[in-house]
């Protein structure tokens, strides 16, 4: 049977009597709060709160009683808690010592001004620069650890590195290949749709080869790996932080950067260029099949036009970016993982943040490469 609690008001000898009855517990708090708000509170009177009918009381019920006392006193009443059983007195005193907080008013949204908008932009920019500063510091730490390993190659954990290569490379091939194939199909279809107006459908092959090999292949692969493997790095290391496994490594005299970060960094830097080759191939394959079906460009003609449109430089311009993108994804993912606090909420928050930061830094780096290649006329 559900617990019952109530409070009844009456008038006796020129005073207002509030009789509390039943079980004043957390399970009855919602109903009690409604009853208390519906009471007609007196002003400048003597009020006695009769507690003789209270059968059970917990901290929530005690807080409701003291809040009612506080509200009555705020109206100028002289309040007395009467007939309180001795077993409830320590709980009442403990709750009273913590104070009775007034409920917060409903927050009023601030007025959005142009100055506030600029302040918001400045705050976000400052946070971003602060984050970049710490990531650069972490990059320096990893670089020093890597240089130490070059002096002592036997310290490199080859098994862990090969495991990471399998997880971030071989296991990622299906999703990278499928998406690259579909992007090739879309690029060929959209390009042909525009070039057909000028009678230049054959140049769809040029558009497809240059765009995929120079930009889309490596960029798409990096974004997929950032969402797939970068988030996994943060979640794995973050969970170890929550379980105090990273602290255990330090207690055993092991360097977490050497044990956890370098295998992931090297594994991703070695496999992402290979994934880019694979993504380029699948993108060209998808575009070639679409050209054959839609434009009636057979495979030999497609390959001949592709050979005249692209050069080895076109391929290597895309592939050379891959190790840099891999380093960014691995460093950001591991950095956020090591920053996880001992809570599950922190793991989820920083995992999301690592993906956003990785993609942002990858695109910024890609823009920088484009500027440099343009200056070098590559």
Structural commentary:
Helices cover 70% and strands 9% of the residues. It is built from 13 helices and four strands. It is elongated and about 110 Å long. The protein starts with a strand and ends with a helix. Residues 101-108 have low confidence and may be disordered.
From the alpha-carbon coordinates, what is the Rg to the nearest angstrom? 34 Å
Secondary structure category: alpha/beta
Element-level helix/strand string: EEHEHEHHHHHHHHHHH
Low-confidence stretches: 101-108
Count up the helices: 13
Largest sheet: number of strands, sense, barrel closure = 4 strands, mixed
Proportion of residues in helical segments: over 70%
Strand content: 5-15%
Can you tell me the overall shape? elongated
In which order are the strands of the major sheet placed? 1-2-3-4
Average pLDDT reading: 88
* CA(first)-CA(last) distance: 81 Å
Overall number of structural domains: 2
Oligomer: single chain
What is the total tally of β strands? 4
Spell out the key features of this protein.
378 residues, alpha/beta, Transcription Regulator spoIIAA, 2 domains, 4-stranded mixed β-sheet, 4 strands, 9% strand, elongated
Topology (SSEs and partners):
Blueprint: E1 5-12, E2 15-24, H1 29-38, E3 46-57, H2 59-74, E4 78-82, H3 89-98, H4 114-151, H5 158-170, H6 173-195, H7 204-242, H8 245-251, H9 256-295, H10 299-309, H11 312-319, H12 322-338, H13 344-376
Parallel strand pairs: 2-3, 3-4
Antiparallel strand pairs: 1-2
Helix pairs in contact: 1-2, 2-3, 4-9, 5-9, 6-7, 6-9, 7-9, 7-10, 7-11, 7-12, 7-13, 9-12, 12-13
């Amino acid at each position: 049977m559900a617990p019952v609690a109530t409070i009844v008001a009456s008038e006796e000898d020129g005073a207002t009597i509030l009789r509390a009855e039943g079980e004043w517990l957390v399970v009855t708090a919602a109903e009690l709060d409604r009853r208390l708000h519906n009471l007609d509170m007196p002003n400048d009177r003597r009020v006695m709160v009769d507690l003789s009918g209270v059968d059970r009381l917990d901290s929530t019920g005690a807080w409701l009683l003291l809040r009612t006392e506080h509200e009555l006193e705020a109206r100028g009443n002289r309040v007395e808690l009467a007939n309180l059983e001795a077993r409830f007195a320590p709980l009442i005193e403990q709750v009273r010592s913590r104070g009775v907080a007034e409920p917060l008013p409903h927050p009023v949204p601030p007025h959005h001004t142009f100055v506030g908008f600029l302040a918001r932009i400045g705050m976000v920019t400052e946070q971003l620069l602060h984050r970049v500063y710490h990531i650069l510091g972490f990059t320096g730490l990893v670089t020093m650890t890597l240089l130490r390993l070059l002096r002592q190659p036997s310290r490199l954990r080859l098994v862990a590195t090969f495991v990471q290569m399998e997880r971030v490379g071989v296991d990622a091939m299906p999703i990278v290949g499928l998406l690259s194939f579909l992007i090739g199909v879309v690029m060929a279809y959209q390009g042909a749709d525009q070039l057909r107006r000028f009678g230049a459908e054959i140049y769809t092959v040029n558009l497809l080869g240059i765009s995929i090999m120079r930009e889309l292949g490596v960029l798409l692969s990096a974004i997929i790996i950032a969402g797939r493997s970068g988030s996994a790095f943060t979640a794995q290391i973050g969970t170890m932080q929550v379980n105090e496994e990273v602290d255990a490594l330090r207690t055993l005299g092991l360097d977490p950067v050497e044990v956890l970060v370098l295998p992931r960094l090297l594994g991703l830097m070695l496999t992402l260029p290979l994934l880019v080759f694979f993504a380029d191939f699948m993108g060209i394959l998808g575009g070639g099949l679409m050209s054959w079906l839609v434009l009636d460009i057979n495979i030999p003609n497609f390959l001949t036009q592709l050979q005249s449109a692209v050069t080895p430089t076109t391929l290597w311009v895309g592939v050379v970016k891959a190790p840099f993108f891999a380093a960014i994804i691995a460093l950001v993912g591991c950095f956020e993982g090591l920053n996880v606090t001992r809570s599950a909420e922190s793991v989820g928050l920083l995992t999301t943040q690592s993906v956003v930061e990785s993609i942002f830094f990858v695109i910024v780096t890609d823009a920088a490469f484009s500027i440099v290649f343009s200056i070098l006329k590559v």
